[in-house]
Specification:
By secondary structure, the protein is of the alpha+beta class. Helices cover 27% and strands 16% of the residues. The chain is built from 14 helices and 22 strands. It comes from Stephanodiscus triporus.
């Protein structure tokens, strides 16, 4: 609510502005008109009250008429004088009403700003002045969004800091003891270029998820670009308008100056955020280099790396092999301002879920989001290729995801283009583990020539090794903070959460990057893994798995009191679809912990054609309410 002051003279007369002086108004005036007398003298006889009497002629009819006229005039004069007497009463009533309204206005302002500390505000002028100053500050916040004001706590003092182009600041500090929170849309303002380096001083502290209460380790981390996923999807299918409000363009709109242009942004100007989680991986810098050097439009790429290293032993992901002073044209030098690295000590690593959670905190409203491992190589023009593929689906809620093929024999060393005519598709999964900790995990996936041509092929599952989507996917399906020491099972969790929010998963028609697997690369066998610190966080994975399965309703036999429900809505399900629909469609029995096998037979042949018929007209995902299907294994006795 905006409160504005309106100046009014405290000494002003009410009648000056309220009561008009006119013949038919509230103040009567007599109308004097000279009448000729019967004797032709032209002189009037009578009093000074404005009533004129014509001369006597002796005629009785004239006498009667004169009497009638005099009676009528006396009546008008009496009525006019009565109006004059009523004017002060009406004016007094009006003044009373105006006074009450003005007092109510003052009370509202006093309530809104009752905590004004300086003595000047004790008087009327001080209150009005302070009110206007605070209103001007709030208005200025919205008129100049690129000059965000954020708070910095130093001891007992709070300082006001201007942070250019910060899309997440939402607090204005008026002095050392007072803050005003500015209302924000659930979708922050997207800006480009952008970097978490511009947000120094507004990081937030979180408890490391691997330590018990009483042994808290606090970490300073970037805040989420959109802190409340539920406020974005509102537990229902997002509107297309809301979806298009997320995503920046490298060239602002020429009329509005906004970097958020929706689908009016040209394909080659749509920004891409590349998220990489790395654990002591010597190939991480090569992956970052490849993302820029192979891109057709590297100027629209921004890379965010969570780099878990041992300082002094491991190289950083953003430091090139040779110094920039010697070779300034290296991609890591040319595009250093488009690389954000969150570095943490390797002995704090608790698995890929937490690392990727931190990676999601690096996202800043880019149009597309892609996720990969720290040891991949991209094909030439990968950015143009993958965007053309996702746009070919016609599905705003499409997510392209797969297990990557090995790099060996996959990329032409001269052209940098893919040599593969096949691609993997996600359809093979099975229960693993024992007892209450049984969970679904993806197995090896079949790789073959695409069964659908001209667009990616619909599939049921999501893969963490490679994912490409619109930016709102990471804003609405963030990695869970409370799942330490999880390596298997996270993919089903993310996939199911995304399904309930309305997302659809596709296998890319063409692979745009390839994986360096250890079994074919002896050097990679030397790379350490996060579980070298497993003893330090022993037992944490059990509770985390109960939470993971509980949120997606895959462990109905487990009492809900056995797992942590912290921020469950934020890292939980949506309201567009039910998990039970997914389980029925793809033959998953969460009570018996079994699956209907040979699902790939359906996925590779019929699923896409059957389900894509129900893509909504506005492109906001497949309408599963119109699909009544349940996969049954046609060959239950076959391996």
């Amino acid at each position: 609510m905006r409160c504005s002051t309106r100046e009014r003279s405290m000494n002003g007369s009410a009648e000056d502005s309220v009561f008009p002086r006119s013949g038919n108004g509230l103040e009567a005036r007599s109308r004097k008109k000279k009448l000729s007398s019967s004797n032709g003298t032209g002189k009037s006889n009578g009093s000074d009250d404005g009533i004129y009497i014509v001369s006597d002629s002796g005629d009785s009819r004239r006498d009667a008429a004169r009497s009638d006229r005099m009676a009528m005039r006396k009546h008008r004069v009496h009525r006019s004088r009565a109006r004059k007497k009523s004017v002060p009463l009406n004016g007094l009533a009006f003044c009373l009403i105006a006074g009450v309204i003005f007092v109510m206005y003052l009370l509202v302002c006093l309530i809104l700003f009752r905590n004004i500390p300086d003595g000047e505000a004790k008087g009327m002028r001080g209150l009005v002045k302070k009110t206007k100053e605070q209103v001007d500050r709030i208005r200025g916040k919205f008129r100049h969004p690129k000059k965000d004001l954020v708070t910095s706590q130093k001891g007992n003092n709070v300082e006001e800091i201007a942070v250019p182009d910060s899309p997440i600041a939402d607090t204005i500090v008026l002095d050392s003891s007072e803050k005003i929170a500015v209302p924000k849309s659930p979708v922050p303002v997207g800006v480009w270029p952008v970097s978490i380096r511009d947000e120094d001083g507004i990081f937030e502290e979180i408890k490391h998820p691997g330590f018990d209460e009483g042994h808290n380790v606090l970490m300073s981390v970037p805040p989420f670009w959109a802190n409340d996923p539920v406020a974005i999807h509102e537990n229902k299918l997002m509107s297309r308008e809301r979806a298009l409000s997320i995503g920046t363009c490298i060239t602002p709109d020429p009329k509005t100056g906004s970097s958020t242009r929706g689908d009016a942004c040209p394909l080659n100007e749509r920004t891409i955020f590349v998220a990489i989680a790395s654990y002591r991986d010597y190939q991480c810098r090569d992956t970052v280099r490849s993302a820029f050097s192979a891109a057709a439009h590297p100027e629209r790429i921004r890379v965010g790396v969570v780099d878990q290293i041992v300082v002094g032993e491991d190289g950083s992901c953003d430091v090139p092999h040779s110094p920039c002073s010697e070779d300034p044209n290296q991609p890591l030098c040319l595009y250093k301002n488009q690389i954000d690295v969150y570095q943490m000590e390797a002995n704090l690593a608790v698995g890929p879920v937490f690392a990727r959670h931190l990676g999601h905190r690096l996202y800043r409203g880019e149009y597309y989001y892609t996720q990969s491992d720290a040891h991949v190589t991209f094909t030439k023009g990968w950015d143009v290729d993958i965007i053309s593929q996702i746009e070919a689906t016609g599905d705003e809620m499409a997510v392209l995801s797969t297990y990557l093929t090995d790099i060996v024999g996959s990329i032409d060393p001269q052209s940098g283009l893919s040599l593969r005519k096949t691609r993997p598709i996600m359809c093979n999964t099975e229960y693993e583990g024992g007892g209450k900790e049984k969970y679904l995990r993806h197995l090896s996936q079949p790789e073959s020539a695409p069964g659908i041509h001209g667009m990616p092929q619909l599939q049921p599952y999501w893969a963490a090794g490679y994912s490409f989507s619109r930016g709102h996917f990471v804003a609405t399906v963030p990695y869970d903070l409370y799942q330490p020491m999880i390596f298997q099972g996270e993919e089903m969790s993310i996939g199911l959460r995304g399904f309930t929010i309305g997302y659809d998963y596709f296998a890319p028609e063409r692979s745009v990057c390839f994986h360096h697997y250890a079994k074919l690369n002896p050097e990679r066998n030397k790379v350490p893994h996060y579980w070298e610190h497993a003893d330090k966080f022993k037992g944490k994975g059990i509770g985390a798995m109960k939470r993971l399965l509980g949120i997606v309703k895959m462990n109905p036999e487990v009492d809900q009191s056995e797992w942590n429900h912290a921020e469950e809505a934020k890292y939980g399900l949506g309201g567009a679809r039910e998990t039970s629909k997914f389980y029925k469609l793809f033959g998953i029995n969460v009570k018996q912990k079994t699956t209907e096998r040979h699902l790939c037979q359906f996925v590779q042949n019929k699923m896409h054609k059957m389900f894509m018929e129900h893509l909504r007209e506005d492109g906001m995902g497949i309408d599963y309410s119109k699909i009544d299907y349940a996969w049954k294994d046609p060959r239950p006795n076959d391996p």
